[in-house]
Amino acid sequence: MIQELKNTLPLWRIWGIATIYKVVLRYRRTYLGTIWLMMGLVLIVSAKGMLFAGILNLPADRIIPNIAIGLLLWRLFSGIVLASCTAFSGFKSNFESGYFPLFIPIFEVVVRQIFEFVHGIIPMMIIVLIFLVPQPTALLFLIVGLSLSLLTVLPVGYLLAVISTRYRDIAALIQSSMKLIYFMTPVIWLPEMAKGALKWVLIFNPFFHLIEIVRAPLIGQPIDPANWVVVLGIAITSWLLVAFSYRLYGRRILLWL
After folding, report:
1. How many whole angstroms from its chain centre is CA 248?
2. What is the pTM of this model?
3. Gap between the Cα atoms of 95 and 108, Å rounded
4. 237-243 long-range CB contacts below 8 Å, 24 or more apart?
5. Which parts of the chain register pLDDT below 50?
6. In angstroms, how far apart are the furthest CA atoms of the chain?
7. What is the spatial distance between Cα 199 and Cα 209, in angstroms, rounded to a whole number?
């Protein structure tokens, strides 16, 4: 597995620049280009923020930053999870043409989602700054928390790619499940609104912890060490499962394509 990672990193032109170029090509004939990536998110956050501030009878300076950062992070993590399910099958022609490390399709997925995330972070931070001023340490927590979250989602994406390649129904199952998980994750509602048994839903919801270690410092909420412990635990467990999976199947995974 370590050798596969070593072979993947030097091929950054394939999983890095080429991936970004593919995204840019999608907007080649549009006037605004990749600006559409941020405009759509701004419209959604603005509409949902005003709607749920009224429905939930909450102050705008609390709910709108929560939705802005939460939705941006949700799209990043859920996008990686969903796209990873078809990562190997989408890279099938390349695998058939020659040797490519198994991690290249996963890196492509992560880079594509990060590229779209970067387009959204500036307008989302502007929305946050309209309602509050983050603490000086917020930027540090953003970098560290986001890095840890990506190091957690990366092996999860690989595992989902392997399972979905072997059992093709898994991709459809995950796609359907993500719609339910979205409403069970405090993106359009606040974490403190979870009462009673609903608290257990948050505890066992990995997306909540992934989002919260980045979002809480940015919107001035208390930092819960439990979120960091859970994410770190998922990261370690996922990488161990990746190592076990690679040792068990190796490149024989490609026979399932």
Report:
1. 27
2. 0.90
3. 14
4. 238/152, 238/155, 238/156, 238/159, 239/155, 241/155, 241/159, 242/1, 242/155, 242/158, 242/159, 243/1
5. none
6. 58
7. 13
